[in-house]
Amino acid sequence: MSSSEFCGFHTEIDGMIKRSYRLWSEAYNERLSNAEFLRRILSLSDTGEEAKRVASHLLSKETESLNVDYASDL
Ligand SMILES: [Zn+2]
């Protein structure tokens, strides 16, 4: 696993993001992809700056591994 890429503080935020993803994914009947979820929280004004830093890091990894042209989606 790669959770050690973050310090303790950001690992905690990473865990919160993953827990919210599970809740959102249930609400959307699991049609919401992880990348889509990360884009959504990045667009929310009440997402904290540190959470956005972690989310954009996760999103860049996600889109790298999927090799998706997400710019067309902006
Ligand atoms: Zn950190």
What does it look like?
The chain has 74 residues and is mainly α. It has one domain (7-73). It is built from three helices and no strands. It has helices at 8-27, 34-43, 49-66. The longest helix has 20 residues, at 8-27. The chain is globular, with a radius of gyration of 12 Å. It starts with 7 loop residues before the first helix and ends in an 8-residue tail after the last helix. The model is unreliable at 70-74 (pLDDT under 50). Zinc ion (ZN) binds next to helix 1. Zinc ion is lined by residues 6-7, 9-10.
Tell me which ligands are bound: zinc ion
The total strand number stands at: 0
Report the portion of residues in β strands. under 5%
Share in helix: 55-70%
H/E element sequence:
HHH
| Radius of gyration based on Cα positions | 12 Å
Can you tell me the overall shape? globular
Total domain count: 1
- The first-to-last residue Cα distance is 30 Å
Main sheet specs: none
Would you tell me the structural class of the helices and strands? mainly alpha
Instruction: Return residue spans where pLDDT drops below 50 for at least 5 consecutive residues.
Output: 70-74
Mean pLDDT: 84
Counting H and I runs of at least 4 residues, what is the number of helices?
A: 3
